[in-house]
Design goal:
Distance between the termini: 50 Å
Low-confidence stretches: 1-5
Helix content: 10-25%
Strand order of the largest sheet: 8-9-10-11-12-13-14-15
Oligomer: single chain
Largest sheet: 8 strands, antiparallel, barrel
Number of helices: 7
Shape: elongated
Number of strands: 15
Structural class: alpha+beta
Length: 304
C-alpha cells in the first residue's frame, strides 16, 4: 500500500488488496522468478505460461519475421512485429486473485473500463495520486504493464513480468524499484474502486422500473451489468430482459455503504430524462427514490 514500508502488513490493507498481498507473498524478495530452472513452476502458476509454450511461440514469431524479410519488409517494420512476453498474463493473474469482473491485463484497459461502465476505477497518471498495492499500471507507449507494490518515500516498488524474452531465452518476473515519475505512465486501475463499482445490484433494485423525472418517464431494466438499458417508450416485452425500441445506456453502481445506488442516466436519449441520480434507495417494497442535482426528486415504481 502506498506509504507502507511493509506491503504485507494486511492490517493496513483493504480486503481486496489483502488478496493481492497474499499473491505477492509467493514471489521471492531476493531473486527473480524465471520461466526455466527451479522457479519454472511458480512462473507458470503466476502467468499461465511455461518455457515450452514460450519457445513454441518465439519459434513461430521467428518464422514470421523470416517471411517478412523475404517479402522485402524493412527492419523497422519487422521490429514492430510481435515478440511475446508475459507482462499481461501476470496482470491477468492479479485480476483473478480479486475476482475482477474484467480481464485487467490489457494495454487499453482504460478504454475497456469505460465500455464496461467502470471508468471511475481508472486513475490518469497526472491526477496527483499514487497507485496502491495491487493496482495494475500501463506505461505511456501502451507496450508494457505491471502491478504496483509499495512506496517508500519517492521510491516506487513494482512487480512486473515480461522482463526477459526471446533474446534472453526465458521470461522473468521481477521485483523492481524506480524513482516515482508519473510522466512515464498513462495511469492505473484502482482495484478498490473497481471492485466497489462491480458490486452486483441487490434484489430490491434488479428488474424493471418506471422512472419518473417529475412528469417525464423512462423505463429502466437493472440486470447483472452496470450498463443498463433505458427506454423513452414502454418496451414491447417486460417479462424479462428488454425487447423492443432502441435503448440508451444508464449506468448503475452501488455506493460504498452497500445500501444505496447511483444511477447515471447520461443524456437521457434526448428525452429530458438524463442526468445523475444519487442516493437511490428502496422506498417501500416496489418503489425507489433518489435525488438529482439541485435537489430534484426522482422516483421509480415497478410496472403494473
Amino acid at each position: 500500500m502506498a506509504g507502507s514500508d511493509d506491503p504485507y502488513d494486511t492490517s493496513t490493507l483493504s480486503p481486496v488488496r489483502q488478496k493481492v498481498a497474499e499473491l505477492f507473498g509467493q514471489i521471492p524478495v531476493d531473486r527473480d522468478v524465471n520461466s526455466n530452472g527451479d522457479t519454472a513452476g511458480l512462473f507458470e502458476q503466476l502467468t499461465g505460461w511455461n518455457q515450452a509454450k514460450l519457445d513454441a511461440k518465439w519459434k513461430d514469431e521467428d518464422a514470421a519475421r523470416a517471411t517478412a524479410r523475404a517479402d522485402g519488409k524493412s527492419e523497422k517494420q519487422i521490429s514492430l512485429m510481435p515478440n511475446t512476453t508475459t507482462c499481461n498474463e501476470f496482470v491477468i493473474r492479479v485480476g483473478h486473485a480479486i475476482k475482477s469482473p474484467i480481464a485487467l491485463g490489457q494495454f487499453y484497459i482504460d478504454n475497456v473500463l469505460q465500455k464496461a461502465g467502470f471508468e471511475e476505477a481508472w486513475v490518469p497518471a497526472g491526477s496527483g495520486e499514487r497507485p496502491g498495492l495491487g493496482d495494475p499500471f500501463v506505461v505511456t507507449s501502451r507496450g508494457h504493464m505491471g502491478v504496483s507494490d509499495k512506496f517508500i518515500g519517492d521510491q516506487w516498488y513494482t512487480i512486473e513480468s515480461g522482463q526477459g524474452g526471446h533474446k534472453v531465452g526465458h521470461d522473468i518476473i521481477k521485483r523492481k524499484q524506480t524513482q516515482w515519475d508519473p510522466s512515464k505512465l498513462l495511469g492505473w486501475v484502482n482495484i478498490d474502486k473497481l471492485m466497489q463499482l462491480a458490486q452486483p445490484a441487490p434484489d430490491w433494485l434488479t428488474g424493471w422500473w418506471v422512472i419518473d423525472f417529475g412528469g417525464t418517464q423512462a423505463w429502466l431494466y437493472v440486470g447483472d451489468h452496470p450498463k443498463c438499458p433505458c427506454f423513452a417508450k414502454k418496451p414491447l416485452n417486460m417479462s424479462g430482459k428488454p425487447i423492443g425500441w432502441t435503448p440508451w445506456d444508464a449506468t448503475v453502481h452501488m455506493n460504498e455503504d452497500g445500501q444505496s445506488a447511483t444511477i447515471d442516466f447520461g443524456s437521457g436519449g434526448g428525452t429530458g430524462t438524463g442526468g445523475l441520480v444519487k442516493n437511490v434507495q428502496a422506498n417501500g417494497p416496489n418503489a425507489i427514490a433518489g435525488t438529482k442535482d439541485g435537489g430534484v426528486k426522482v422516483t421509480g415504481t415497478r410496472p403494473g
